[in-house]
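Appendix B, record 7
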Amino acid sequence: MVKIHFNIDENNRIRDGWSSTSTRNQNEIVLHVAEDHEVLTNAEVFKYENGELVKDVEYQQQLLKQQQEIDNKPSPDKVNAIATLELAETVAEMKGGN
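Structure tokens (predicted):
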């Protein structure tokens, strides 16, 4: 078992991860969890309800979707490269090329 210290936000979600030592917050919660408990690697998707940690699968899916949107967004360099190519094609067409 591992002793963890954490604080929760207004939605009862673990705020700012967990610590193996006291957070020195008067509202700190202390629990013992199994050494392989998912909260140790993925704390942000857990809520503290009725004295227990409960995985919020819906919130986890929301976070995954947000991360995928970020990952799929083209980088500024890629956006600039595409714009440069499109501009070059337009200039070439205006000059009667291609």
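Remarks on this record: Strands lie at 2-8, 14-19, 29-33, 46-49, 52-55. The CA atoms of residues 62 and 68 lie 10 Å apart.
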